[in-house]
Amino acid sequence: MDQQFSLPAYQDIVAAAKRLKWVIRTTPLIESVVASTACDARVFLKAETLQHTGSFKFRGAYNLIYQLSAEQRAKGVVAYSSGNHAQAVAKVASLSDIKATIVMPKDAPQIKIEATQKFGAQTVLYDRYSESREDIAATIVAETEATLVPPYDHPHTIAGQGTVGLEIVEQLTALDCIPDAVLVPCSGGGLISGVATAIKHHFPDTQIYSVEPEGFDDTARSLASGERETADLEATSICDALLVPTPGHLTFAINKQLLSGGYKVTDTMVQKAMAFAFLQEKLVVEPGGAVALAVLLNGQDEFIDKTVVAVVSGGNVDPAIFGAAIT
Amino acid sequence: MDQQFSLPAYQDIVAAAKRLKWVIRTTPLIESVVASTACDARVFLKAETLQHTGSFKFRGAYNLIYQLSAEQRAKGVVAYSSGNHAQAVAKVASLSDIKATIVMPKDAPQIKIEATQKFGAQTVLYDRYSESREDIAATIVAETEATLVPPYDHPHTIAGQGTVGLEIVEQLTALDCIPDAVLVPCSGGGLISGVATAIKHHFPDTQIYSVEPEGFDDTARSLASGERETADLEATSICDALLVPTPGHLTFAINKQLLSGGYKVTDTMVQKAMAFAFLQEKLVVEPGGAVALAVLLNGQDEFIDKTVVAVVSGGNVDPAIFGAAIT
Predict the structure, then answer these.
(1) B176: left (phi over 0), alpha (psi -120 to 50) or beta
(2) Does residue A295 sit in the same domain as residue A190?
């Protein structure tokens, strides 16, 4: 299915930004004085935790669903997601009374399952070790003629997420500042491919890096090999939002052109970053949202004296997981 | 000492805003969709948790210290505070290599004591049940000729905190919106007197309400009686930032003119508001910072169909206290 689409261009992100203007929150770009001191760098955090539904996913879901025809909307939408995309699709659908069915893993964080249901979506829970979410969604689509809202591998999704990058450009330009590097959490690659498209258009010399959990660094390895690689299928991670095992077709086609490489982080590094964000910046960050900050706090020499943006992509975390990370 | 000052006027807040423009963060005014639905109102949260040092106190401390003479600065500054003012004075002093001595209660949250020391201030810990912080500070001032930076009862402090109100006015005006009510956490009254001065100048019909912990509702009772009343001296509260037992002279002189009344909240209501801010808005809020939101979430009928701003004033909370509130 993915192959029928052409890659989204910079202008698609500008169009998405217009579509989203009165709906999304412009999230703050926070210059973290403490992180800057710790890293001997100038560190900005793009706090997408403060976006509607607690993550950047609202942008892509809105941009796609609001380009559906009236007939398509009447038949509803279907999505599969470990949680953040689920909530985003459910919320966007609820804004226009569109019926939404969301296929979610049984072991997704309770907070994400409940939020999705609260927005009025029907949830279909599956076992991620024995069932295919794509197959379940395809069956629903076949039965209902609902439209599938892909979590990352669609030009409208990528363009929507790219508005995060456009905001970073505007916010840094207001400070007369060009970043040396932008670090972005990466799973299927929708966020980083959109962000890279926006940022490289304005700042061609800025380096964009993916950040993934250890074992799920398929994008980093794909960038190195030039082919779409697969994650370690036995790996586990606390980053429930970053467990997609292979880069998307569209997203990787963009990322292999625009990214400079990828980092990977351990669960311990992620928890340390969550605690830092809590203590120093008063931000609630979920594990998958903290990976880019985790790279910086791990003392990477290559960012000394540089201006670096870490995208903090989501804040939907169960209280017990959060409590364990901060204490 | 307080009596020698005249009340700060609206123009003093405008002057403070100019002084602070390149130093403070303009904190987001977040329209909380979930709180609005829960309250059947339009609810905005002014997230001063995201201010430097994690609370609004940075504004007032900066506005005062940057009006000291070179001679005064050379002799250093002294402050007494349960924590947020302490950190703010320590941080502002560190920006210009001014020596800071901070008198703090021994049982202040560890996170606040450590942050104050990390900014390079000397801390003097005292027993809040047997010693007077004012006396300890006065002794230091007598010995060192350092300048006392009062936590609330000074026109420069009030004008600095008033910039929170000015931002609220600008942010709501951009939305073509006039609030019916603004709820502000209150202890000595510096924040609310400044905010009220700014907001009433632009929106004379907006009602401003103080919010205090149960037992420490001396401002609410003072507003009712017209005289400065004292808190219940046996009371306890998790709101460590809101334990000043009597309204200030200057602050009460302003508040009795501009405020419409006061609310009080229990510890349980405060914890519920902290959990709400964590789950729904991904904000880290300390107990004292959550009291205004706690009033709204308690289902006050008088705010139905109204536009209400709750100032969320600080986020400096020990991990264990936070963990207990959210789980």
Answers:
(1) left
(2) yes
Say yes or no: A253 and A186 in one domain: yes
Q: Does the distance separating the beta carbons of A315 and B319 come in below 8 Å? A: no
Q: Are residues B200 and B316 in the same domain?
A: yes
Which candidate, B20, B55, B258, B312, places its Cα nearest to that of B156?
B20
- Final residue of a structural domain among B102, B129, B148: B148
Name every chain B residue with its beta carbon within 8 A of the beta carbon of A283.
50, 282-284
Domain co-membership, A166 together with A18: yes
Beta-carbon contacts of residue A229 (< 8 Å; ≥ 6 apart): A218, A221, A222, A246, A247
**DSSP bridge partners of B31:** B44
Chain A residues bordering chain B (beta-carbon distance below 8 Å): 25, 28, 30, 33, 49-50, 52, 54, 111, 275, 278-279, 281-285, 315-316, 319-320, 322-323, 326-327
Residues of A in contact with B282 (CB under 8 A): 49-50, 54, 283-285, 315-316
Q: How open is the CA angle B284-B290-B295, to the nearest 5 degrees?
A: 145
Nearest CA in chain A to B27: A28
Do A90 and A184 fall within a single domain? no
User: Which chain A residues touch B35 with a CB distance below 8 Å?
Assistant: none
Indicate which CATH number applies to the domain containing B40.
3.40.50.1100
Domain that holds residue A88: 58-148
Domain total for chain B? Answer: 2
- Residues B84 and B228 reside in one and the same domain: no
**What pLDDT tens digit does each residue of chain B (327 aa) get?**
444 678 999 999 999 999 999 999 999 999 999 999 999 999 999 999 999 999 999 999 999 999 999 999 999 999 998 789 999 999 999 998 999 999 999 998 888 899 899 999 999 999 988 999 999 999 999 999 999 999 999 999 999 999 999 999 999 999 999 999 999 999 999 999 999 999 999 999 999 999 999 999 999 999 999 999 999 889 999 999 999 999 999 999 999 999 999 999 999 999 999 999 999 999 999 999 999 999 999 987 899 999 999 999 999 999 999 999 999
Which tens digits make up the pLDDT trace of A98-151?
A: 999 999 999 988 888 998 999 999 999 999 889 999 999 999 999 999 999 999
Helices B57-65/B10-20 angle, 10° precision: 90
Strands A181-185 and A307-312: parallel
ipTM summary value = 0.95
Task: State whether B192 and B303 are in the same domain.
Answer: yes
Half-sphere exposure of A251 (CA within 13 A, CB side): 30
Residue at which a domain ends, from A148, A168, A197 = A148
How would you classify residue A35: left for phi > 0, otherwise alpha for psi between -120 and 50, otherwise beta? Answer: alpha
Residues A25, A121, single domain; the answer is no
